[in-house]
Design brief:
three-stranded antiparallel sheet; Immunity protein 63; single chain; Imm63; 18% strand
Amino acid sequence: MTDLAARLEALRVQVGATWMVGFENFDGGHPFIEVTEGPVYRLVAYERGRRLFAQETRKLDEILYWALYEVTRSMAYASAVRNPVEGEEQRFTAFRRQEELLGGLDPRWAERARASRPS
């Protein structure tokens, strides 16, 4: 888990984020990572004690992408609120910004985000 924490911190700094998905459950819908034998990585979020979602993988790159997807989504929406584009829905401004942020970390991540973007 130490290697994963170090990689997450390096990516947080690289993207300029003020927060990073961690390893503790703070409830309130905040995603966190669980690591079990294997290793198996799980991105989970709870709100009021009820699980909102859980994604599981054995791939380190996958859990890194999922964590950075959450962080950059938050950054992108904050940017879209601060810098609205006239005549454009805020979510499209945010989608583009998130893809830029992810692309700065790994071009494949930007492509994944673009491919999964809601229309």
